Every structure is written in structure tokens, then in C-alpha cells.
Amino acid sequence: MSKKVYDVIIVGAGFAGMYLLHRVRALGLSARVIEAGSDVGGTWYWNRYPGARCDVESMQYSYQFDPELQQEWSWSERYSPQPEILDYARHVAERYDLRRDIQFDTRIAAARFDESAARWTLTAEDGGTTTARFFVMATGCLSAPNWPQIDGLSSFAGPTYHTALWPHEPVSFKGQRVAVIGTGSSAIQSIPHIAREADHLTVFQRTANYAVPAHNGPLDAKLEAEIKAHYAEMRARAKTTPGGLDIVYSKDSVLEATPEEQEAAFERNWQRGGLGFMSAFGDLMMDRKANDIAAEFVRAKIRALVDDPETAEALCPKNIIGAKRFCVDIGYFETYNRDNVTLVEVKGRPIEAITPTSVRVHGRDYEIDTLVIATGFDAMTGALTRVDIRGRNGAALAERWADGPTSYLGLAMTDFPNLFTVTGPGSPSVFSNMLPTIEQHVDWIAGCLGHAKAHGYTTIEAEAEAEKAWWDHHQEVGARGLKSAADSWYLGANVAGKARVFLPYYGGIPAYFRKCEEVVANGYEGFAFG
Ligand code: N01
User: Fold this and answer.
1) What is the DSSP letter of 178?
2) Whose CA is nearest to atom 15 of ligand 1?
């Protein structure tokens, strides 16, 4: 019996893979989704550390492709906790009967393009193969965990947990001495929870981070009803902002405002809470002096929240505010007022080693029972380069990207025909509200597949010139202002040996969406069909 050849293979059953499956089915195409986890949900399936929740408000972090789905689902809190988002993903899988086309517990190791047949064959780690005309990597921007390179890490005798690979069984810290390495978003969310449970918590901080309070709480029923009555308008407004969030971005200059006006605008945003803090003025990411004013406002808040002046000073970030990913917290800074929490700075004096029972810094052993690694991800490219993807003439994606990726719109790459990426490098992705951005990419890819079907094309490929022009533009935009001035994962700076290249597109949602629409209106400009 000959093996089935699908029209489309989709790797990943997170929000991107699930919606794409729904869209390609509607085109009458056959599809198979292959997922490494045992269930749908992607990032919300894997990142289940204590305190994990979305930094984007619930009413904005959901699908909008189906108004009925949008109306029938209710969130319980202003910012949804991970278990509720996972329930939502499962609900979507049931509601659209997606599971029958998803193969779980299968991690793809390699993909080969057969030029003569114009097909991709994917090989899983267990040796199983799947073949299709088109292949979409819907593997997420933050899904390849980054482990720190610290001597002796594997020698630690107690349990070691990575925030991005958290066990499905409950983890108890009761009676334990716990270490957390890292102070990014995942650590900032989990540290208050771990501190409440553990005997003692030691946090190893390399770079202090800016965080603004979430002011989380039960979702206001009146607000929910109001948004639901005008959902489409809110979604449309969000698409006019750089980050795809329904937030009013001021164009005013902080440098032209009086100290009282500055204070009032920052205080308003601090009290509102969440990711929109930097919307207070228009020049905060353009000018170092302007940026310093916002940074100093947050530092003053940290000094007021933390009792011990030395700890408070250590928790005050000294770098550019907003260059690294902004954090949203629930009681993070106050956690350092607890007697059972110690902050150890490791900037300029890195962790020397992990021994079977301790973390060693500057000759001192901090004895611990449990180790929590919160060191983030090989962002944007890791999930793509960890699969051995070979396109035309055996071109290897990982080799092609050794000095940094290139891509046309974060959607497709020259020499890799019929391969699409959802929210790939060169698209706004992590600079925006991910769910609407995912929907835009999926809609674009589905439209392109529909176009190929209608015209009987068997290959689609990004043209080298179009890819280069987009990438040059993307790098030029990324270099504007202050965003590229810090060693962030946006530039690959958090992974040893990774090329330093600006990864997400910084030109904003409106410009990017417009460009994607123009490409279609101009007959898929920059793509070759065969
Ligand atoms: O990872 P990170 P994350 N020794 O890379 C430190 C998204 N997210 O998992 O800054 C000591 O931000 C490192 O220090 P430094 C969100 O987009 C979303 O927290 O490199 N420390 C840093 O402090 C976020 O940005 C939500 O000097 C070491 C930390 O580890 C992204 O995921 C929730 C070290 C890593 O921070 C990643 O966040 C959570 C070493 N050897 C996350 N190596 C939502 O709400 C690294 N570090 C949707």
C-alpha cells in the first residue's frame, strides 16, 4: 500500500498549528499536524511553572477568527493563568474537531525536499516519516529551551527544573532550599510562588530587570460585556498600534514635558499596569536621555517596594528600559522583603560551578536541595535550526543561518520551496500580541496555499532579491533607536556562539501587515510559483 502524501504537514499544535489546520481544511486540502507534546497548546503546554500566566490581557490574548468562539469563551482573570489558556487551547481543539488530524508525542528531527517530486518528507526522532507537498513550521518563537553553560550542571544531585520544560506532576518546594538561576519573565513570575513555599530561596541574578505590576484580579464582568459588545472594533484598533495591543500610544516627547507631567503620565501607566508602560511618551525608545527618565521612575518604585536598600539597589536595572523584554509582575519585588529570600548578584562574577549540593559563586557554596533554571530560549531560530531542514540542492537551513537568519517577511526562505514559517525571524512576532500576529500569518499562508491550488502550482518559493531587500530593511529598522542597544534575546545575544542579528521586525504591526497585503495585491510579489 503506498503511503499517503498530504497536501500540508504542519509541525506544532500550538495556537499557530491549530488555526492553520482549521484554515487548510476549509481549502479542501489534506493536512497532518505533528506535535512533540502529548496535547495541544504549544508554549502553554510546556511552560507550566508556578505563576506562569500571559502578560497580555485575557480579552486581547485570544483568537478572533470566529466571532462565536470569541463570544462564548469567558476568562476568569484580567491576565490568564497558564492552566486556563491551556483549557482554552483544548476547547478550540474540541470545538473544531482538530485532534483527529494531529499526531502527538512525535518530535520531527529532519525534513528533506525532493525536487523531482516537489515534496517534503519529514522524519521523526522515532524514524517515522510523513510526506506532503507543503510544509509549515508552526513551532513558536520561544520553544527551544536555552540551558546555561555552567560547569557541573549535570552533576547536581537534587531535582533540576527548567521553567520551559516543567513537569506535569505537581512540584513541591516545601521544606526545600531552592536556587533560581535567571531573572527574566519566567523567573519574575515564578519566584514569588516558590518563595512562599520553600524553606529558603536564593536567586542568582546576572542582570536586574524592569517590571511593572500586573494589578491582576478577577476579570470585571462589566468590562467583559463591554468588550464583547464591541469586540471587532477593539481588535481593529489594536491592529493600528505598533505592538498590536489596544493601548493608546502617546506621541508626546518626555523631554518636552515638565517633571509633573512626566510623573503623572508614568504614574498613570504604572497604576494601569502591564506591558503598556512605555506608551506614556513617544520618544522613550529613541533617545537615551528620554529613556533614562522612564528608567529612573521605575527604579524609584523598586526602591520604595524593597525594604533593604542594598537589595533594592541590586534589583534596580541600570540598562536601557524596554530594550530587553519588559516584565509584568505580581509581587516580585516585595518577595525580597521575605526573610527566606536571598539575592546573589552574579554579574561580572559568573556562577563558577554547580556541585552535587550547591551553587558556587566566588568561592562560596550556596547549599541547595532543588535547582530551577530560568534561562529562557534559543529564541526565534532555535526551533527551526534544531531540525535538520534541507531544501533545494541539499541546502541546510542551520548552515545557511550560521551567521544569522534571513527570511522574506518571516514567512519563507529562498532555496526552501513550499516551506513556510509562522512568525519567523523578520516578522513582528514577539514585538506584538502573539495571537493576532499568528492569525495574520496563518491567514496569509492559507491564502497563498489557496492561490497555488486555484492555479495548479506545485511550488512556491521566496525570490532571493525580495528576501534580501526585506532583510536589509528589517535590519535597518532594527538598528533605529535603542532597541538594539542591549544584549537581549531579540538579537540572539543570550545564546553562546549565536550570531548577533536583529530577529523580530521592529517596524510595527501596521507597516508589516500593509506590506503583506501589498505583496498579495501585486500578485505575490517576491514569490516564484512553479
Ligand atoms: O528568559 P529570559 P525567560 N547565569 O531570556 C539569565 C517570554 N515569556 O524564560 O539577562 C546567570 O528573558 C539571564 O541573564 P541576562 C517573554 O517574551 C512570556 O524568563 O542574560 N544567569 C536572564 O535573567 C520573555 O522575554 C511570558 O544577563 C543567566 C534569564 O536567565 C521570554 O519568554 C512569560 C545565565 C533569562 O531570561 C523569555 O523569558 C514568561 C547564567 N549562565 C516568558 N544564563 C508571558 O507572559 C542566562 N541567565 C507570555
Assistant:
1) E
2) 207
Q: Is the distance from the beta carbon of residue 377 to the nearest atom of ligand 1 less than 6 Å?
A: yes
CA 376 – ligand 1 centroid, Å: 4
Whether residue 413 contacts residue 467, with contact meaning beta carbons closer than 8 Å, is answered with yes
Query: In whole angstroms, what is the distance from residue 313 CA to residue 299 CA?
Result: 8
Helix-strand-coil percent breakdown of the chain, rounded to 5? Answer: 35, 20, 45
Q: How far is the centre of ligand 1, averaged over its atoms, from the C-alpha of 191 (Å)?
A: 13
DSSP 117-160: TTEEEEEETTS-EEEEEEEEE---SS-SB-----TTGGG--S-E
Q: Which atom of ligand 1 is nearest to the CA of 493?
A: 20
Residue 375 CA to ligand 1 center (angstroms) comes to: 5
Answer whether 473 contacts ligand 1 (Cβ < 6 A): no
Q: Which of 18, 136, 33, 21 is nearest to 86 (CA)?
A: 18
CB 102 within 8 A of CB 337: no
Which atom of ligand 1 is nearest the CA belonging to 434? 48
Cα separation, 210 vs 335, in Å, equals 15
Cα 187 to middle of ligand 1, angstroms: 7
Strand partners, 433: none
- Below-50 pLDDT ranges, the chain: 1
**Cell numbers of 312, please?**
533594592
* Cβ 498 vs Cβ 388: under 8 Å: no
The set of cell numbers assigned to 470 is: 526585506
Confirm if 409 and 474 have CB atoms less than 8 A apart.
no
Instruction: State the CB neighbour count (10 A cutoff) for residue 318.
Output: 10
**Which element (helix H / strand E) includes 213?**
strand 211-213
Exposure on the CB side of residue 523, measured as CA atoms within 13 A: 3
* pLDDT for 16: 98
The answer to whether 278 and 251 have CB atoms below 8 angstroms apart is: no
Q: Which letter, b or e, does each residue of 20-40 get, where b requires 16 or more Cβ atoms within 10 Å of its Cβ?
A: bbbbbbebebebbbbbbbebb
How far apart are alpha carbons 234 and 228 in whole angstroms?
9
Instruction: Please tell me whether residue 17 adopts helix, strand or coil conformation.
Output: helix
pLDDT of residue 25: 98
- Cα separation of 8 and 136, whole Å? 7
Res 2: pLDDT: 62
pLDDT at 3: 85
Alpha helices in 199-306 (DSSP H): 221-229, 231-238, 259-272, 288-305
Instruction: Give bridge partners of residue 11 from the DSSP assignment.
Output: 34, 137
Task: Supply φ then ψ for residue 341, to 5 degrees.
Answer: -125, 130
* Contact (CB, 8 A) for 207 and 65: no
